[in-house]
Amino acid sequence: xxxxxxxxxxxxxxxxxxxxxxxxxxxxxxxxxxxxxxxxxxxxxxxxxxxxxxxxxxxxxxxxxxxxxxxxxxxxxxxxxxxxxxxxxxxxxxxxxxxxxxxxxxxxx
Amino acid sequence: xxxxxxxxxxxxxxxxxxxxxxxxxxxxxxxxxxxxxxxxxxxxxxxxxxxxxxxxxxxxxxxxxxxxxxxxxxxxxxxxxxxxxxxxxxxxxxxxxxxxxxxxxxxxxxxxxxxxxxxxxxxxxxxxxxxxxxxxxxxxxxxxxxxxxxxxxxxxxxxxxxxxxxxxxxxxxxxxxxxxxxxxxxxxxxxxxxxxxxxxxxxxxxxxxxxxxxxxxxxxxxxxxxxxxxxxxx
Lengths: 109, 234
Fold this sequence. Notes:
The structure holds 2 protein chains of 2 kinds. Chain A has helices at about 5-30, 35-45, 45-60, 70-85, 90-105. In chain A, α4 (about 70-85) runs antiparallel to α5 (about 90-105). The model of chain A has no long low-confidence stretch (mean pLDDT about 90). By secondary structure, chain A is mostly helical. The longest helix of chain A is centred in the N-terminal third of the chain and has 26 residues, at about 5-30. Chain A has a domain at about 50-105. Helices cover about 75% and strands about 0% of the residues of chain A. By secondary structure, chain B is an all-alpha fold. The termini of chain B are far apart. In chain B, α2 packs across α3, α3 runs antiparallel to α9 and α8 (about 110-120) packs antiparallel against α9 (about 130-155). Chain B has helices at about 5-15, 20-35, 40-50, 50-65, 70-80, 80-95, 100-105, 110-120, 130-155, 170-180, 185-200, 210-234. Chain B folds into 2 domains: about 5-160, no CATH class; about 180-234, no CATH class. The longest helix of chain B is centred in the middle third of the chain and has 29 residues, at about 130-155. Chain B is built from 12 helices and no strands.
């Protein structure tokens, strides 16, 4: 990296400030005003609209394997979904998924 | 002021996230230090930006000596989803005082948003103050450990064994959050559109494919809900 100290801090502070304004945006502007029903109806699906798309490339094309499909990771993802359906418990799911991941990593990987 | 039941509930619900926060903060500390940042700059990232994915993107592009404005644009694009979280939380937390909303905004990380929105939808009778207490309960074990793990990674360096699949702690954590959210056909449709959309729009730069996919998925979920209601009413 050939960046100057000023450039590095410009990025850190700019990114921090910009990220904060994105986070504050609607929460700050809307405040206690009521939103129309059609807007609320869309917002109800924010989490299931963002998060599956965010992790799909991580599951199918992990950067750690150079972007190629990895059997261990894929199997761990399937196991995690199954554990979540069965147990309906986030803690058990996360520890169970991690246990399957590491078990497969050390036996197959 | 005693901390409420909701606070401790959030705190408990967030403890499994420690499993992902510690390795990720540590890896960021290692990667950013190896990229040539000093300790203050590494910590500046984790404290001021407090968003893992965007921090990794920024450092990666800094290593490639991309222009400052391009680095900022790319990393901020990764964080555009936070505006969606902000809108989604507004109906729940919009009624608390402005400075508390300011604090909620600073701590708005993926895990905090996901855990909070799942709780709010499952417990519709919570008051805004209880919702806020739950939110701060969730961020209490997450955010300080993010700083601490970053610091550990930066100072201890490559003591983390290479080759371990710790990158996969992130999808595992999110799967544990997403599956319980699939409560209706509308939620399932939204999730499927999100997955297909992100693959179809993968060619877009700066992670913008995710935003397009998310917008389409929200519309799909809302439309399925509208049709199901219309059918139930008729």
